[in-house]
Amino acid sequence: MSDKPTAIVTGASRGIGRAIAIELASLGYNIIINYFDFKDSQPDDTAAAAAVEEVQKLTVQAYALRGDISRSEDRQRLIDFTKEHFGRCDMLVNNAGVAPARRQDILEAGEESYERVMNINLKGPYFLTQLAANWMIEQKQSNPDRNFRICTTSSVSAYTSSPARGEYCLSKAGLSMMTKLYADRLAEYNIGVFEIRPGIIMTDMTSIVKEKYDKLIAEGITPIKRWGYPEDIAKAVGAIAEGRLDFSTGQVINVDGGFHLRRL
């Protein structure tokens, strides 16, 4: 078993997940990078390999494992892979997520998009957390002095209506309740569970609507008039990993430039 803490980060080859992996590595965590990238409809390992290389520069170990967290067998493989390589998991970061492939009005959206988004964004994290939590309980019983934490990336869409991507909003609202449920259930084992709620963050997902959000930010939709960056999210996860919020299980951390203030 590794003598360093280990973190599983899903969706960690690019964007927010990659920034989180680098932040945790800087804090001394070994990293398992989960990813499921494609390019031109073909599996693409390029970004994941680059992320592993960048993490390893921080004198920790890192491995990448391709897997679709919406699939039961891939979730189990991710846990088994971590056991095989490190023998421990001290932190799970549920970060993988997708937007609808095509934005459609809620009066017209179909079941195929709904199922894809909900399976990846909500069902996957729900059952991956179940697997990780049960393993953490086992580890806690044999290593009572170690600290275990679970962190999930949601979105301001958990409470902000976007009728052209209803399935995305529902999935993020579900993650908010998931955090509360696991925080409640795991408190007896002193396993902290947290929700990071990003606002408008500069990623691949938001690049297609950059002009729209540039205008909204300039007009003051957020009190802090700038885009958020993946590193902003990573810093919040880092604070959790350092144990600075261990008495705040179930807490929502808004990383949104003040969007949640809902000012008039």
Automatic annotation (TrEMBL):
<dbReference type="Pfam" id="PF13561">
    <property type="entry name" value="adh_short_C2"/>
</dbReference>
<comment type="similarity">
    <text>Belongs to the short-chain dehydrogenases/reductases (SDR) family.</text>
</comment>
<keyword id="KW-0560">Oxidoreductase</keyword>
<dbReference type="InterPro" id="IPR002347">
    <property type="entry name" value="SDR_fam"/>
</dbReference>
<dbReference type="GO" id="GO:0004316">
    <property type="term" value="F:3-oxoacyl-[acyl-carrier-protein] reductase (NADPH) activity"/>
</dbReference>
<dbReference type="InterPro" id="IPR036291">
    <property type="entry name" value="NAD(P)-bd_dom_sf"/>
</dbReference>
<protein>
    <submittedName>
        <fullName>3-oxoacyl-[acyl-carrier-protein] reductase FabG</fullName>
        <ecNumber>1.1.1.100</ecNumber>
    </submittedName>
</protein>
